[in-house]
Design a protein that fits this description.
4 helices; Pnp Oxidase, Chain A; globular; 7-stranded antiparallel sheet; 4-stranded antiparallel sheet; single chain
C-alpha cells in the first residue's frame, strides 16, 4: 500500500494510533471535503483563511483574486499549512472529560507555487468546478481571457502529508460505565437541501438534481 513518508513535522504524536499515512485514505478525505483552511504568515502576522480547493493527482489547488492577502502572500512561495476536516459524529461520553468527535482530518505542509502555465491553470479551474458539482464545467459558459487573468491559482504538492482519524464509541473510565448516563455517538452529515432557483432563471429549465452532489 502506497504511503506518505511521515516527517518530524507531519508524524502524529498525540494519540499516534490515529495517524494515517496511506495515500488512498488521505486522498479519499481530500476528495470528500470542499473547504480547506490555509495557514500562512505574512508581514509578521499569522492568518488562517477558509477557501475552496481541489485535489488533482499529487497536488492541491486553491484559487482566488490576485488582490487577496492569501494569494498575494503565497505568491511569494511562503511556507503554508493546509488542513481539511470532516466531522462524522459527536461522541457523548459519561464524563465531561471524555466527550469527543469522530472525525477525519488531513494536514499538508509545503510551499505553494503560482500556476503560470495556461493549460494547467484552466485544467485546475475545471477540476475545481467539477469538484463542487461533477460535470458542471461542461454545462456552463467557459471563463473569458479577462476572467482568467483576474484569477490566480496556487498549487501545493502532496509531499508532507498526514491524516488523523477517530472512529467508534466513547472511551470512558472503567468506573464510569456503571453511571446511569446515556453515552454513544450522534452521527453528523452534510446533506443538500431543496434547490432554490435564481429569480432570473429562464422558464422551463429542469430543477437541479442534488443527487449529483453525493460525495461518499
Amino acid at each position: 500500500m502506497e504511503q506518505f513518508q511521515p516527517t518530524t513535522r507531519t508524524r502524529v504524536k498525540r494519540l499516534a494510533k490515529r495517524g494515517v499515512y496511506e495515500k488512498a485514505a488521505v486522498n479519499a478525505i481530500l476528495d470528500e471535503g470542499i473547504v480547506c483552511h490555509v495557514g500562512f504568515t505574512a508581514d509578521g502576522q499569522t492568518y488562517v483563511i477558509p477557501t475552496g480547493y481541489v485535489r488533482v493527482d499529487d497536488r492541491i489547488y486553491v484559487h482566488g483574486s490576485p488582490a487577496s492577502r492569501m494569494l498575494g502572500a503565497l505568491n511569494q512561495a511562503l511556507d503554508v499549512c493546509i488542513t481539511v476536516t470532516l466531522i462524522d459524529g459527536l461522541v457523548l461520553a459519561r464524563s465531561a472529560f471524555h466527550h469527543s468527535m469522530n472525525y477525519r482530518s488531513v494536514v499538508v505542509l509545503g510551499k505553494a507555487r503560482l500556476v503560470t502555465d495556461a493549460d494547467e491553470k484552466v485544467a485546475a479551474l475545471r477540476a475545481f468546478v467539477n469538484h463542487v458539482v461533477p460535470g458542471r464545467w461542461d454545462e456552463v459558459r467557459q471563463p473569458t481571457a479577462k476572467e482568467l487573468q483576474g484569477t490566480h491559482v496556487l498549487a501545493l504538492p502532496l509531499d508532507e502529508v498526514s491524516a488523523k482519524v477517530r472512529t467508534g464509541p466513547p472511551i470512558d473510565d472503567e468506573e464510569d460505565y456503571a453511571l446511569p448516563i446515556w453515552a454513544g455517538v450522534v452521527p453528523l452529515r452534510t446533506a443538500p437541501g431543496e434547490p432554490v432557483g435564481d429569480p432570473r432563471l429562464l422558464p422551463g429549465l429542469p430543477i437541479f438534481d442534488t443527487a449529483r452532489l453525493a460525495r461518499s
